[in-house]
Amino acid sequence: MLRSGASRLASSSFMTPMIRPTSTALNRSVSVQWNAKLTSMATQRPRLAPMARLGPLQATLRRRTMADKIDREAEKKYAHEKLEPTPETVTSSSTMQPVFGGKSAGKPLSMPEPDMTAGLRGDIKTIRDTFDLSEVPRQAYYIGLAGVLPYLATCLSTVACAYDINHDGYGYFLSAKNAETLLHILEPIQIGYGAVILSFLGAIHWGLEFGGYGGYHGYRRYAIGVIAPAVAWPTMLMPVEYALISQFCAFMGLYYVDTKATAQAWTPPWYAIYRFVLTGIVGASIAISLMGRGEVADKLSPIPGAVDRIKTLREGAGEELAKHEEALRVQNAAKQAESEGGEGRKSRAT
Q1: Paired strand residues for 138
Q2: Region Disordered: which residues (predicted)?
C-alpha cells in the first residue's frame, strides 16, 4: 500500500489550517506509523486561536508562507514508500496503550498491585520516630534512665509485697506481715522521691532562663520552676493513694508544659521526646503501684499519716498543756492555802 493518501492528508492539513479534520480510528492508526519527520511537521501546523486573531490579508499571507515551506522531496519519498504490516502488535487492548503508558509489544497492560503493608510500615516508622532518642546527648540519656530506676524499684516492690499479702500464710517472697511492713516503708520513699523529681524538672527551666536559651522570658519561665515544687511537696502530707494520684497528674501537667516550651524554642528540640519517654516510665510505675495497693487495700492495717501525726501532736500538746495548767492551779491553790494558814496562826498568837 502506497502512502499517497497520507501525503495528501498532510498537505491538505497545511493548506487549510482553519478547519481541523475529524479523527477516525483509521487516521489515528495511520498517523501513529508515520515517521518522526512527518510527525514533527504535523505538530507544527498553526492552531485555530492564533490564526483567528489575524486579519484576512495576514491570514492568507501566513498560509502561503507555510505552504511554501513544505518539503516536496520528502513528500515524494513518502508517497512511494510502502507500509510494512505488523499484525502481531494489534490486540484487543493495543488501542489503549498510547493513552495509558505507551507500547508494550501487544501485551495487555497490567496495573501495579497496591502495597497492602504500606500503612503498617508507616505506623511502625511513626512509632520509631516517636521513641527516637538519637539526638539526645548521651550523658543526659544515661542519667535520665538512671533517674527512673528508683520508680521502677518501688513499683516492682509494691507489686511483690501486694502479692505476698494477698496470699494466706507465707507468700512467694516474704510473709504477709513482713510484706506489709515493707510496703509501709516504701510509701514515703516513693512519694518523697516523686516530689524531688518534680522539683528538679521545674528547676531545669530556671537553668535555661539563666543561660538565656531561646531568649529571656522572665517571670513566665520562672513560674514553671516555682509551681512545680509548690504542687509536689504538699503531697507528702496526703494519704498514699491521693499522693500518688496527685503526683501522676503533676507529671502529666509538667510534661504538657515542657512540650509547649519546646514548641516555642524555650528548650532544646530533643527535650520533648526525652521527657515523653521518661514521663511514660514514671507514669506507668505510679499506675502499677496504685493497682498493686488497690488489691490489698482492705488487708492493710491503718497506719497514721503525716496529717494524723500532726493531729496527734496537736492533741498531745493540748493534753500536755491542760495537765500543766492543772498542775499550776493545784500548786497555786496549795500556796494560797499555806499562806492563809500562816496568817491565821499569827492572828491567834497575837
Answers
A1: none
A2: 328-350
Instruction: Using alpha carbons, list the distances in angstroms from residue 102 to 34, 85, 87, 187, 247.
Output: 16, 19, 17, 75, 67
Query: Is-above-0.85 flag for pTM?
Result: no
> Dihedral, CA atoms, 133, 136, 142, 147, nearest 10 degrees?
-90
User: Which residue has 484487543 as its cell numbers?
Assistant: 92
How far apart CA 289 and CA 286 sit, in angstroms, is: 5
Report which secondary-structure segment, H or E, holds 243: helix 240-263
* Spatial distance between the Cα atoms of 262 and 259, rounded to a whole number of angstroms: 5
Residue 2, strand partner residues:
82
d(CA 182, CA 99): 79
Report which residue type is found at 209: E
Cell of 172: 512467694
Interior angle at CA 85, CA 79 and CA 91, nearest 5: 135
* Positive/negative CA dihedral, 78, 83, 84, 88: positive
CA distance 247 to 233: 10
255: left (phi over 0), alpha (psi -120 to 50) or beta: alpha
Segment 7-28, tens digit of pLDDT: 444 444 444 444 444 444 444 4
Question: Which cell goes with 133?
Answer: 532518642
Q: Which residues of 216-237 are buried (b: 16+ CB within 10 A; e: fewer)?
A: ebeeebeebbebbbebbeebee
